[in-house]
Design a protein that fits this description.
about 70 residues, elongated, 2 helices, two-stranded antiparallel sheet
Length: about 70
């Protein structure tokens, strides 16, 4: 059981780690999106309204598990 909230000290302020994970996940998803455009595969993804939020969630959970292990 955790004895403290999962937060990270950034320049003297405490930020919830989940915000950092989501921010990094959005950036990774944008990178994957531009990679798919470059490879001309972006048009193959349907429905995009489900694919991209799912990709953000996948990356956010993976970052949480790999780097923070709470």
């Amino acid at each position: 059981m955790l004895s403290h909230a999962p937060s990270l000290d950034v320049f003297g302020s405490f930020f919830p780690i989940w915000i950092l994970c989501i921010g990094a996940a959005v950036l990774l998803t944008l990178a994957v999106h531009f990679l798919l455009i470059r490879l001309q595969l972006a048009g193959e993804l349907r429905p995009r309204i489900i694919i991209y939020p799912s990709m953000v969630m996948l990356f956010a959970c993976a970052i949480w598990l790999v780097f923070f292990d709470y």
